[in-house]
Amino acid sequence: MPLTHRILIAMVLAVVLGSLAQWMNTQALPEWIDWTLNSLLVGGVFAWVGKVFVAGLKLLVVPLVFVSLVCGVGALRDQSSLGRLSLKTILLYLATTGIAISIALTMATLIAPGEGINLPASTDYTPPPASSLLDVFVALVPTNGIAAMANANMLQVIVFAILVGTAIGRAGEPGKRLAAHFEDWNEAMMKLVEIIMHFAPYGVFALLFNLFASEGLGTVGQLLLYMLTVILVLAMHMTLVYPLLLRGLTGLSPLRFLSKMRGVQMFAFSTASSGATIPVTLRTVEERLGVDNRVASFAVPMGATINMDGTAIMQGVATVFIAQAFAQDLTMVDYLLVVLTAMLASIGTAGVPGVGLVTLAMVLNQVGLPAEGIALIIGVDRLLDMLRTAVNVTGDAAVSTIVAHSEGALDERIFNDPKAGEVKD
């Protein structure tokens, strides 16, 4: 059975059994059943399996990104093309983010998920401080490359890798020897990703079972229309915007692209982290979609760092929802401010923990809405975070494919082969 099918079965079983476990917790259970369910399974075995699985993915992120990006930059024959490659990638990410939040604002205004709710504000949520845009740009260059990797500061790791790759590409014969060494490391890291992917169904099951067993769906009913609006826009962006861009700019089959992205989307959904999914995304983009390493090694980690299409959608819908809940009208200028702030925040707050809620606080502040309104939606944010992460990684792969096609660095034979790069049992 293909890996994606096994992961899908694990996800369905986890949601069903996890929700059942959460319902059982509301009943009067014998002590031994309660201990078995909550202490042994939810707080014990499954918690351990889920944490080990995510830790295994995160273990690969920094070395894989560093080695892969050094290989990609070092292999550029014309290293002046790096600037063109970077500009195309970043502009495409900003463009898709702008499109995402524009659609979100439009659909939220039409559906009006917060109309007539009049929920009371809560002061339980205090957003963490966000870094200024200037601070982020200043912090791009690491003072210690090893420390940047140890702290998993991805923007600094990317800059350090680009500098090392550039130096290798210009170092002549010694550079060729080093490049071959990094290529061997890159092959080994990709094989390690493949090994970890064999354990994916068990890790995915453990993560989702724990989530639904502990959180359940209790808060969904009150915010159902808000959730459905976010999910609708996420689905539109993933199944319409990316495919249209892909077809229009490359002529490639969107259906083939989406079918090959299913495994990555499942990983992203279960971990709710674009960063933790980098190893799987990078392997899929290179080996299943046919993107050359020199493009994938830059575009994928950069996307995981600054691409916030899914988060931008949440911000757009949440802003309209909170404004309607507090019976405040937004003007056209307010809408433009929301779009601009979200696009800038996609770079300005990259890498900040809880980045979606941090940037939402910034957006609300720009249009004069109380940041306390975030408390209205925080109860369902975890589930939506999983969904928007799946959209984000799809965007990372779509942009990588489009840029690679424009640079002549896409193997269309691999892209069109449905079996290319599949993980075998």
Write up this protein.
- With 425 residues, the chain is mostly helical.
- 73% of the residues lie in helices and 0% in strands.
- The protein has 18 helices and no strands.
- The chain has helices at 3-24, 31-74, 81-111, 133-138, 145-150, 154-169, 172-197, 200-214, 224-250, 254-260, 262-271, 278-287, 293-306, 309-325, 332-348, 355-366, 381-406, 412-416.
Distance between the termini: 7 Å
Radius of gyration: 22 Å
Beta-strand residue percentage: under 5%
Largest sheet: none
Shape, principal axes of CA atoms: globular
In round numbers, the mean pLDDT is 82
Q: Order of SSEs, N→C?
A: HHHHHHHHHHHHHHHHHH
Q: If helices are DSSP runs of H or I spanning 4 or more residues, what is the number of helices? A: 18
Quickly give the structural class: mainly alpha
Fraction of residues in helix = over 70%
Low-confidence stretches are none
| Number of E strands | 0
Question: Layout of helices and strands, plus pairs?
Answer:
Layout (H helix, E strand, L loop, with lengths): L2 H22 L6 H44 L6 H31 L21 H6 L6 H6 L3 H16 L2 H26 L2 H15 L9 H27 L3 H7 L1 H10 L6 H10 L5 H14 L2 H17 L6 H17 L6 H12 L14 H26 L5 H5 L9
Helix pairs in contact: 1-8, 1-11, 2-6, 2-7, 2-8, 2-13, 3-9, 3-13, 3-14, 3-15, 3-17, 6-7, 8-11, 9-10, 9-14, 9-17, 11-17, 12-13, 12-17, 13-17, 14-15, 14-16, 14-17, 15-16
A few lines on this structure:
By secondary structure, the protein is mostly helical.
